[in-house]
Amino acid sequence: MISDIPPASESVDILKIILTIFLVLLNGFFVAAEFAIVKVRSSQISTTKGASQKLVNTARIVTNNLDNYLAATQLGVTLASLGLGWVGESVMTGVVVKFFHLFSVDLSTPTASKIAIVLAFVLITVLHIVFGELAPKSIAIRKAPQTTLLVAVPLRIFYFIFRPFILLLNAMANLILKAFGISPVKEQDIHTEEEIKMIITESEEGGAIEDSERELINNVFDFDSRRVREILTHRKDIVALDIDASFDEIVNTVVAEGYSRYPVYKNSLDELVGILTVKDILQFVNAGKNRDIKKILRPVFYIPDSMKIKDILKSFQKDHLQIAVVTDEYGDLAGIVTMEDILEELVGDIQDEHDAELPIVVEQPDGSFLVQSHETLEDINEFLPRPFPPDGEDDYSTLSGLITFRHGSVPVEGEVLHQDGYEITILKMYRSSVEKVRLRLLPETSLPQEEDK
């Protein structure tokens, strides 16, 4: 072991030190290249500021041939590590010995020589891990587009030099993967719907996008699977016109209700004869006694309640429709659906100039409060005798969010909760959101945070 220690008179080879540092940095280059090309997306490369189109094209060649270039980075890491192991340990041992000789440490004893070798090994290992692995990896992950552009050209050169060997190694690796039933890595990293939703949620939590933007994007994904039975206006809520009603009665109904389209029936809703639009009614206003609405009825467009919303939208666009009548599995009228209903699935509730603006809080004669719980706590608290606590660092800003957060799950209509000194009755839900509640102030002696689950 003592013979492994170089004599005190032997100077440290500067060229070998430079070679060691170069091999550490070379290892770091290939590590950074590996992590960068795996993490980066094609769109990020194209939008990186200051990058020439030629460099962007080179980077795309690398990322579009991910399998081969990953093999190139692995080969580069292996070669650099082998070279570092061959040169680096002896160089670091020489450095440690030189350092010990400066302090007149006697390395002729077995203990001292072992300490010198261990210190040299630790030193080269630390350099390798920190500068050849961890630092490059962290930089590549945080700056994937910039790193990809930086390594693209030299990585391409390395690939062409060792291309036959890389292809051979890659083919051997793919054969092994095939034997285990595993597909080789794909060039294009396709995100699943759930992964995209997770990315969107994390982006919102990080402040990159607004809550409304996250909700809109999630609605787009949900839109594909939702069916018309989930959004229709139920038959009991339909405002329809009797074909035998007088023209004045029809006009009065239209003015009172404020809708733009009405189903017209004979005897009952199960016998629809057409759709009447306000625009068509206007042409009869000055027609005197010749006001036969049968002449201006539009045909009824029927759809099953199992039809997907996306398919209804396509039909509406193709046939220039705004309203459809929905039938159940037995062919009976289940309700109606309009273009506005479909759009509200994406952007939320749409109010036009005829829709009454609902008050945020309405005090009832019995002392309770009817509250639109999708409003902010700040706005709601202005009308309540006992304010709800502010959201602080919790992930909510509306009363609906507070109720769900405190309850620990999505409540159901009719459920009664006790929170923050109020008895809260859930009156209306929209999907997983609490739309309307009744608040009843509890006596001060009541438990403020009790929840009925």
Automatic annotation (TrEMBL):
Domain of life: Bacteria
Localization per record: Cell membrane
GO molecular function: flavin adenine dinucleotide binding
CBS domain location: 232-293, 296-353
Domain CNNM transmembrane: 9-213
Keyword Membrane: yes
Gene3D superfamilies: 3.30.465.10, CBS-domain
Ranges that cross the membrane: 14-37, 79-103, 115-136, 157-177
Listed name of the protein: Hemolysin, contains CBS domains
